[in-house]
Design goal:
By secondary structure, this protein is an alpha+beta fold. It is built from 16 helices and 24 strands. It has three domains: 187 residues, no CATH class; 106 residues, PDZ domain (Pdz3 Domain); 193 residues, 2-enoyl-CoA Hydratase, Chain A, domain 1, CATH 3.90.226. A hairpin with a 2-residue loop joins strand 2 and strand 3. Helix 2 packs antiparallel against helix 4, helix 8 runs antiparallel to helix 9 and helix 8 packs parallel to helix 10.
């Protein structure tokens, strides 16, 4: 009899071990369609409960650890019925309160931009009892702890912190597991689950993502479960961020930089007329560079630039094609090699040269000569010029009396050294709505409502009377785009240039395993009438782009066009 008990005891231990085995030991080849489906649902249930269950939202459980506990139990289940039974039992561990927030109604919420995308919890055919349990959580009161921070009242949850007016939200208490020296797939899957659910519930532009966000999750589960190294893991993070199509979302660290390359040829490259064109050479401190401004790069180390584009775009999150090509241009001549063999076109002549590279941190300037312009200058007696991207501080005169004023936003404003450009009241003769915002909800994750519009200017009979021309291009991003919207409210103003970066709104950092932090947009930005700015960018009134000919001649054709428009004024 005692032998029977021993065998029974061993079987129990074996079953318990099998049910709880560490996901880090899951063989990659086992990650079949059924397992992917199980993990796909688990990610959604885990994320929904993280933000919707009051006790979990308030930090009563270590939610990462709870995921690590349930993941190996769910992943290998072969039948839908058994999977749902296991998930239901797991969900029932966390008591569901009976209190109900009746103020939340699918049909009576005012000023709604987007409702939570949670209709999947109603699919009882797929989820069985899990559906009922999740539906019970939907309208629960999610009470939070009020904190006074610097005089401001914040709504404090375990993983989120909202200001009282919900115009600010921060992700917090997400373990970054920075001690990890190697990545196991339970941590890589946790990273995917975190990213997916943050976008699902707190990203204002989820509805603009080209792919179905649910399909993105399904596509990447096997990739994250199969990861073999920290670099592969970080590249996968870049790939999934690329699916969001938001220029704000990126990942920069030492491993990624090493992968891109730590050396660079001493030229700037921009994408002009569908070509990579040399627009700046910074060889003052170095051996002369054989490339010249206006050269069109065709091949690098024998590789056609089109092939390089296809490779690099997989890892660059970009709101539109203009900013994608901006980012590829920035990376194009990075390498680990001491020399690059470059084939290029100059005056219709095909040339090639070996170009030396230098450790990029040792390069003493960035080749963007526009950055060294002053904040303010008079181009001539009729034209004033304001450049918020200047590296230098300065002052904008209180009164400007010219036929025209050019505000150049083609580089990111220097907020550290320059402040007064933010208001620039002299431009406006009255107050006017400039920007409309949306914000997420602390009580209903996934809900985004229109909040306030910012107002620019005030009553001013002595406002600027000349033509205001705002210059933009793919370098106009985020705060620069916001300022373009404000300046465009000035009377007799126009926007001149080309597609901007289409990345608007405030961002906060999200921690991921491996000591990784990625920026996530949490604020939607729109025109006062509700028109989109994200991905579209700030649409110019007059379209104008540089040409290869103009670059070769050393001209700033966009600025020249602005001066021409001002000089046409009688």
């Amino acid at each position: 009899m005692w032998k029977i008990y021993v065998i029974f005891f061993i079987l129990c231990i074996s079953c318990n071990y099998e049910g709880r085995r560490d996901m880090s030991n899951l063989p990659v080849e086992e990650c079949d369609t059924i397992q992917i489906s199980n993990l796909h649902l688990l990610c959604k249930v885990w994320g929904f409960m993280k933000y919707y269950h009051p006790d979990i939202a308030n930090g009563m459980y270590d939610w990462d650890n709870e995921l690590f506990e349930i993941m190996p139990r769910v992943v290998n289940i072969k039948s839908k019925k058994e999977r749902n039974r296991v998930l239901s039992k797991w969900i029932n561990k966390y008591d569901i309160p009976t209190s109900c927030n009746k103020s939340l109604s699918d049909t009576q919420m005012p000023n709604v931009k987007t409702y939570p995308d949670i209709s999947w919890i109603e699919n009882k055919e797929e989820l069985g009892e899990v559906s009922d349990l999740l539906l019970n959580m939907k309208y629960l009161e999610r009470n939070c702890v009020g904190l006074s921070v610097g005089g401001d009242l914040y709504k404090d949850y375990c993983y989120l912190e909202f200001s009282e007016d919900e115009k600010k939200v921060f992700f917090k208490n997400e373990n970054d597991y920075k001690e990890l020296k190697e990545i196991k797939n339970k941590y890589s899957l946790l990273a995917l689950f975190r990213i997916w659910n943050v976008i699902q519930y707190y990203y204002p532009y989820k509805y603009l993502i080209d792919k179905k966000w649910d399909d993105v999750l399904f596509e990447y589960i096997h990739k994250f479960a199969s990861v073999k190294s920290l670099l592969e893991y970080k590249l996968l993070i870049l790939m999934v961020l690329t699916e969001v199509e938001d220029t704000h979302m990126n990942l920069w660290d030492e491993d990624i930089q090493n992968w891109i390359g730590n050396r660079k040829a001493l030229v700037n490259v921009e994408f002009v007329e569908n070509s990579f064109v040399v627009t700046g050479v910074y060889d003052k401190y170095y051996k002369k560079v054989p490339l010249e401004i206006g050269d069109v790069i065709l091949k690098i180390d024998g590789r056609c630039v089109q092939n390089i584009i296809e490779e690099k775009k997989m890892y660059i999150s970009a709101s539109n094609n203009a900013v994608l090509m901006r980012e590829i241009s920035l990376q194009l001549l990075f390498t680990d090699k001491e020399k690059l063999h470059i084939e290029y076109l100059r005056n219709n002549q095909l040339l090639s040269d070996s170009v030396e590279t230098y450790y990029y941190k040792s390069i003493k300037n960035n080749g963007n000569r526009r950055r060294y312009k002053p904040l303010f200058e008079y181009i001539d007696e009729d034209v004033a010029y304001v450049y918020p991207g200047s590296l230098f501080s300065g002052k904008i005169p209180d009164q400007i009396n010219t036929k025209g004023l050019i505000i150049d936003l083609r580089d990111y404003p220097n907020q550290k050294n320059i402040k007064e450009y933010l208001e620039f009241y002299h431009l406006y003769n009255e107050s006017k709505e400039s920007v409309l915002f949306t914000y997420g909800s602390s009580t209903w994750p996934g809900l985004f409502t229109y909040s306030y519009t910012t107002v620019v200017g005030k009553k001013n009979e002595n406002s600027y009377k000349g033509l205001v021309i705002i210059l933009v291009d793919e370098g106009t991003q985020s705060h620069g785009e916001y300022m373009a919207m404000r300046y465009r409210c000035a009377p007799n103003s126009i926007i001149l240039g080309s597609t901007t970066a289409g990345a608007d709104g405030g961002v906060v950092r999200l921690a991921l395993p491996g000591g990784i932090y990625v920026p996530v947009g949490i604020q939607g930005v729109y025109y006062p009438d509700g028109r989109e700015t994200q991905r579209i960018g700030i649409v110019p009134d007059i379209w104008m782009e540089p040409t290869i000919k103009g670059i070769r001649e050393g001209r700033d054709e966009v600025l020249e066009k602005a001066i021409e428009l001002i000089n046409e004024i009688e």
